[in-house]
Design a protein that fits this description.
- By secondary structure, this protein is of the alpha/beta class.
- The protein contains eight helices and 13 strands.
- It has two domains: about 120 residues, Rossmann fold (3-Layer(aba) Sandwich), CATH 3.40.50; about 110 residues, Winged helix-like DNA-binding domain superfamily/Winged helix DNA-binding domain (Arc Repressor Mutant, subunit A).
- Helices cover about 40% and strands about 20% of the residues.
- Helix 6 packs across helix 8.
Length: about 240
């Protein structure tokens, strides 16, 4: 079996498949493509791709449903490729477990940079483990096992949500500016994309049972960034 990353393109428009295949193969990726949601479910286990590029407008099944089905059986990174630009669609895709989204028509260089960034995050998450735990209040993070619990109950987080929480935990008690978090969690290519960061922080808070008005864990320093409270230390986090 080849050690080159395999990228699965889920797209029913041949011109986009040809464009993506040509550019990805020129960079050394293996490329597989399917045109329907049914084919994704059939071929995903055998292909075991390193990343999925998923068009939302498929002929048989809504792309959101495909995203949800894939995420139910695999944590493979997913980049949504779509002509839908409404905020509600973006939010829905991220809530269902997509790691990133790119709108059509897209700039190929930007898409390739995002693919590389997502693959870097995926590789880092799979090898970066530390034999220690972090806890504050009822929140516990086991870095070695990549598990998060609140009051003893395990909290299912997406890969990106876990990376965001881990970055905050590794700097607990200090306010991390938005661009630092975007660069550390998503990659330097994502600096300035504050909407995505705010969305993920909101989702993370909701899963942890936290609120922005009376935070137990994640504190907002408006106009600066975010911080995770430090165990056993009173007062507000300080800027880093």
């Amino acid at each position: 079996m080849s050690e080159r990353p395999c990228i699965l393109i889920v797209e029913d428009e041949p011109r986009y498949v040809r464009l993506l295949r040509a550019n990805l193969e020129s960079l050394g990726y293996e490329v597989a493509s399917v045109a329907t949601g049914q084919e994704v479910e059939r071929d995903l286990p055998a292909l075991a791709p390193s990343l999925v590029i998923l068009d939302l407008m498929l002929p048989d099944v809504d792309g959101f449903e495909v995203c949800e089905r894939v995420r139910a059986v695999s944590d493979v990174p997913i980049i949504v490729l779509t002509a839908r630009v409404q905020q509600a669609d973006v939010v829905r895709g991220l809530k269902l477990g997509a790691d990133d989204y790119v709108t059509k028509p897209f700039d190929m260089e930007e898409l390739l940079a995002r693919i590389e960034a997502v693959l870097r995050r995926s590789a880092s998450a799979s090898v970066r483990a530390e034999d220690q735990e972090f806890s504050v209040g009822d929140l516990m993070i086991n870095f070695a096992e990549r598990r998060v619990k609140v009051a003893g109950s395990e909290i299912p987080l997406t890969r990106t949500e876990y990376r965001l929480l881990s970055e905050l935990a590794r700097h607990a008690g200090r306010v991390l500016v938005a661009d630092h978090l975007l660069s550390a969690v998503w990659g330097r290519e994502y600096r300035g994309e504050y909407r995505s960061l705010h969305l993920y922080v909101s989702r993370l808070r909701r899963k942890l049972g936290d609120t922005s008005r009376s935070p137990r864990y994640i504190v907002t320093r408006y106009g600066v960034g975010y911080a995770l409270r430090r165990p056993g230390v009173a007062g507000e986090p300080v800027a880093s």
